[in-house]
Every structure is written in structure tokens, then in C-alpha cells.
Structure of Bidirectional sugar transporter SWEET:
Amino acid sequence: MVMSNERIRTIVGLIGNVISFGLFISPSPTIWRIFKNKTVEEFSPDPYIACVMNCLLWIFYGLPINHPDSTLVITINATGLVLELIYLSSFIIYGKSAHRKKIFSWLAAELVVLGAIAGFDLGFFHTHDKRSTFVGIFCVVFGILMYTSPLTIMWKVITTKSVEYMPFYLSLAAFLNGCCWTTYALLKWDWFILIANGTGALSGFAQLILYACFYRTTPKKNSKRPESEIFEGLQTMPPIMSILIFKEL
């Protein structure tokens, strides 16, 4: 029995959901370390602040006023939003006053930007297609920026000839996630999903190539750098490298 195109697309989307959720919780060891040691050390809240904005945009995108029948968009990104706020709470509780000021300032700015986008969207566009396109453009642009953020860690790999700052399984998951959602977009043409996740697949593939090139030149455990440096390096990678481009299956 041959499966329909829609059923195949649904299966691919479900696989993408599983991988994406895994990427959502990938920062958990770092956050647990902060709560356990009661210090943020040299970790930065920046990736989590950025991901909050991404989730807010996609939640707004999935609302019935913009894109009807997109419950999955809202639920997945709402889950991500809750997790990112939990991650940020560790910096608020154990970070310096500068951390707290930065977090609250940026969160306030993100709400202002979202409010401006919402006001323009509802005030100037009066069909679902136009509204979803307008908001979707912001989501895709932000997603691409997040997908390309590992360029800094990739450059570090090249200059140090070491992959200790670039976890293999995180890179592999990002690549597979990008491939899943790119396939999902191709099965039923969707520019928003295709562009952002196509970029993510290419980014993940480039990371895997670098891993293959520099794995042998990476210092072994008996000569590795201090653990704190490794964790600091991991923070240059976004906590959800997939920056989720979800639509209703």
C-alpha cells in the first residue's frame, strides 16, 4: 500500500518534532550546572534571550488571526518559551546585577518589538495570507540569523583545529532536524519552512564536515582544556539550533 504524500509529510513532521524538542532541552546540563553550583560562571544569557523572541514570534504567527489551524505551532513554541524562561531564571537568580538588568531590558524590548509587529499586522493586513506572510518573514529572518550563529564556534574549530567546543551529537541533531523540515516543506511547498530549515541543514552539514576534518587533531582527555572553558565555548551555540519553523501537520 502506497502512502499518500500528506501522510508521508505528517510522519516527517513528527520526526522533526521529536528532534526539535531534543534541541530545545539541549541546554539543560548547562542550566543544571548553574543551579547546582549557584553561579553562572562565564555563561551568557544571550542565546536564551534570542530564543525567547523567536518563540514569541512563532506563537503570534500560529494564532488564528494570522494562520488558522496551527495549534502545533503554538504548543511547540509555547513549550520552548517556558523552557527558555526557566533557563533565564537561573541567570536572574544566580547572575550578577548586570545580568539581571540585561535580561529584563532585552525582554522588555522584545515585547515592544512584538507589539509593534502585531499592531502593524492587524492594522494594515486584513487577510490570513497577508498576515501570515508578513509575520512569517520576520520569523524566517530571525531563524536564519539564529541558524548562522554557530559560525563563531565553527571559526574557533578551524583556528584551534579542535572540535571540543562543538559537540558532535548537537551538530548531528541540528543537521537531521534541518533535513526533516526541509523535506517537510518540499512535500507541500512552503517557502517559510524551506528557507530557514534549508539554511539550518547546510549549517549542520558544514559542522559535521568540520568535525570529520578536525576530530583527529582534537586534544585527548588527558590534555583537554579546563571544563569551564569547554562550557563557555558551548554557549556560543544557540540552545535550539533548529529555531523551529513549525506548521500544522
About this structure: Residues 97-124 form the longest helix (28 residues). Residues 5-234 form one domain.
